[in-house]
Amino acid sequence: MILKSNSVFIFFKYILKAKWIVKLPKKNNFVLVDGIYNPFLRYIKKKNFTILHRRGEEINFSILIKCFLKLKFTTLDYCVEFIKHVEPKLILTAFDYHTIFYKLSKKTGIKTLMLQKGQRFLSEGIIANSNYYFPKKSKKIFFVDYFFHYNNSTKKFYDKRITANFFETGSFENNFTKPDLNKQKEEIIFISNYAPKSLDANKSENEDVVAFYLHKLAKKNNIKFNILPRFRRSSDNLNWDEALKEEKFFYKKLLKNNYKFIIEKRKTSYDLLLNYKYIFTTYSTLGIECLVNGIRVGFIMFKSSKNPASLYRFGKMENLKKNGLFWSAFSKLNIREINRVFDFVTKTKYSVWIKKTKPYSKKMMNFDYKNKVFKNILKQHT
Length: 382
Prior knowledge:
The chain is an alpha/beta fold. It is built from 15 helices and 15 strands. Helix 9 links the parallel strand 9 (about 185-190) and strand 10.
């Protein structure tokens, strides 16, 4: 079931396309809202989850009938009926922008736990569309028992709009492990933000230009250059193989040769990036995650001032300046700045790197190694 809208049209649209389940959902210790992404499997066995789908994948016929008999027809009604039947000890989700989730704790009497999903930007998503997501006096309506978020700027945004117990623990998946610095390849990997025109061409602006100058500097310093493509793994929403071909062509036009696309579909992006000594990106949650994990990361943003993606620059939400030790943002090509950031990332002594970058990395994202805070809360519900 979809959790975002109570529209009758959308409700029946999902009814028509969904897989129908007749058997009542399994009673279980945990309900996961939105089964497309489940990082909690690191700590909770799959068999202990009952999934409440929200993208139209499945509809439980028995729960739906229960709702109809009670003259309850909204998506929220369905979710509440589903959860009350399962009788979990805790309701979890890895998405922080499903507003119905904010109502589940009060409606069911069962505690809820929510993770922040990705970095937040001023020009898109829940922040740019906050009036849509949060009605007036939403703080009195919306409540989450445990909200795990990245940093203080995220908390400030949500604290005005929902009531919650906030835990500044950083990225849940990034907290799983630390890099082995002795096993890292002394190579550069560039995190691509390429996007085809069918998605958002703004994000691609000058990605290839930044990669070109970094590639040129890498060659000059005898460092191998690699690209982590955005379209490395498959998705139901796009012809991924075709998108990957377009992405390769996008970079090859300028870079020509002497670089490598890192695909390795079986590995997560986290696993791949931890193997490289130097990481560069224009903007990236992954880049910030690696930074707080002790890896050398440079952020170089080159986008026109009218491009909404220019607001994705490093430190924008945290009120950092456009240029700093390991980052730079400009609307006109500034080769000197690219050189400066490159040199600081690749040539600074590691002990100096850690000392000088730590104040900024802590502002961007906290790091709770092995998710100790989550595990302590989990013990209270098992």
